[in-house]
Amino acid sequence: MDAGAARRRPQEVMSGRFKQDPPSSASSDRPITHKLKKHMEGKTLLMDSTVHISSSGGEETATTRQMEDEESTTDIGEMEGSHPTSPRPPSAGPPPQTPTQGALRSPRSRRQRTTSQSQPSRSREPILRGRRRTIYTAGRPPWYDCQGQLVEPFVIGVCGGSASGKTTVARKIIEELDVPWVTLLSLDSFYKVLSEKQHEEAARNEYNFDHPDAFDFELVAKTLVRLKEGKKVEVPIYNFVTHRRETKTKTMYGANVIIFEGILAFYSPDVLKLLDMKVFVDTDSDERLVRRLQRDIAERGRELDGVLKQYFKFVKPAFDYYIAPSMVHADIIVPRGGENEVAINLIAQNVMTQLQQRGFKLREKLANANFGIARPNSLHLLPSTPQIRGLHTFIRNKDTPRDEFIFYSKRLIRLVIEHALTLLPFTDVTVETPQGIPYEGKRIATEKICGVSILRAGETMENALCEVLKDVRIGKILIQTNLDTGEPELYYLRLPKDIKDYHIFLMDATVATGAAAIMAIRVLLDHEVTEEHISLCSLLMTEQGVHNIAYAFPKVRIVTTAVDPCVNEKFYIVPGIGNFGDRYFGTEPSDQ
Ligand SMILES: Nc1ncnc2c1ncn2[C@@H]1O[C@H](COP(=O)(O)OP(=O)(O)O)[C@@H](O)[C@H]1O
Ligand SMILES: Nc1ccn([C@@H]2O[C@H](COP(=O)(O)O)[C@@H](O)[C@H]2O)c(=O)n1
Description:
By secondary structure, the protein is an alpha/beta fold. 29% of the residues lie in helices and 23% in strands. The protein contains 15 helices and 24 strands. It has helices spanning 34-40, 166-177, 196-203, 217-228, 269-272, 285-299, 304-323, 341-358, 362-368, 386-396, 402-422, 462-468, 515-526, 543-552, 580-585, and strands at residues 44-45, 64-68, 71-76, 126-129, 134-136, 154-160, 182-186, 233-239, 244-252, 257-262, 277-282, 332-335, 379-381, 426-432, 438-444, 449-455, 473-481, 488-496, 503-507, 510-511, 534-542, 557-564, 566-567, 573-574. Strands 2, 3, 13, 16, 17, 18, 19, 20, 21 and 22 form a 10-stranded mixed beta sheet that branches. Strands 1-12-11-6-10-7 form a 6-stranded parallel beta sheet, with helices on one face. Helix 6 (285-299) crosses helix 7 (304-323) and helix 10 packs antiparallel against helix 11. Bound molecules: adenosine-5'-diphosphate (ADP) and the ligand Nc1ccn([C@@H]2O[C@H](COP(=O)(O)O)[C@@H](O)[C@H]2O)c(=O)n1.
């Protein structure tokens, strides 16, 4: 279809009820006032042959699943219906039939989806199975730019009547986008907790779930703001059968794209201003009723009479009074919902353009960033003594056997950790010697020190830290390179819950472009660790890596035993050390 061939809304734009009118069950299901109609003139309406999109903004992502024990542990990658290789089907059941065709089956006749769509999907292929954890194929991508600053996700709001196909449209946009990091957030997750009396009303289909008062919009806005800031949020999971929030929540972190869908997605001005693109799904009222009957009976544990009673008493009037008028806010109107492939395609194209404009290639940018020759003050390079050069000679030599590689690496690691310790604040203390004479000494000014290793090479540095600090805590961050994009991705976190109170020794054996280290620092900052409280400890870094990290996070102390000139086209350090993890753990690929 031709871009720019936007069509005007046809005759169905008719007069009807507007916001000031009282809700009435007798009102039309297509009530658009003159004022609304006028507003619609400037809108994009996506029909089979339509095409013109207006929207604003654009940006970045992620979502996670969290498992709590004494520490905060997160498997990154339970993307909300977002994995390109395993999209969830739009509907769990057979094609819908009209109620009269006998489609109103028992709630137990097929698997029910009883909870809100913000819950995690289950179809993921794990790549790593630990003793206690499973780590998934999709990770959290960079959510910051070369300056280490947050890049906001692009937020699409999808509004429309109940069963108009909002979720279906959202899922189709996700499939079409082909961006691995998309989060689907549903307004349903923000239904308020009901009192006992309200539960009794709900059981009789006499509670109004379609009124704005039923939702916690303040929490919606707070959640979206935090996601836009790249911060972690706990999203309630709503159960439509029990009308309650589940005890578990879903952890989310934002994404390249966040899709927020709900019947009143455009109701709150505070929420509205957080949406970069607003899509209204406009489906015929009869169709909506038929779909709702089928779905509520099949998936939400309802009876025919109850669904109809609730529909005419609350759902339809609320549509007329609140939802239809909110169409004025839409940038794009999608008639008929999920089957409108032209519209979905165009929305996806528009979002992709906006994402591409901001650029996905963080590591490449870091590798090519230009800096002056002066090294930053935050770099603490151990003096290049014969001892240190001697240790480097062992570990850089490609012919050094593994046992010697491990032995000399450990010695260097110990030196770098000891050096980093000297950079911590110390206070004066006086102790008495066995001779009864005071000794004016020093003590590290903090007891809260945590080592955080960037897996897997950083793990080789943990022992040295434990040997020099008796009660040190250890956290872990797994970052891997996506072989398709070359970008670092965050897969797994295990950090003390009160990490913000700690001085952190962030450990990675080598730092090339600095992409992984910057991601790890970003994670720590997102957990409210103070930048000044982070010491990045590494055996070998590159000039570029040092500059990139110092540029993004000038207050982070960088401690290393050597700085090499550059990285090659594969982002390996030159002259370098080879793949430290492979050499240390003996996992080097054989020549055959
Ligand atoms: N184009 C369509 N054709 C037939 N059934 C559909 C279509 N779109 C959605 N449905 C079905 O209608 C029901 C409601 O769709 P959904 O996308 O969940 O709507 P909403 O999120 O607006 O409530 C689901 O059971 C879904 O499978
Ligand atoms: N306990 C509840 C909560 C909500 N509803 C109805 O759900 C509709 C919104 O969900 P959609 O997926 O259809 O957008 C809304 O119209 C409520 O009436 C419910 O029945 N029970």
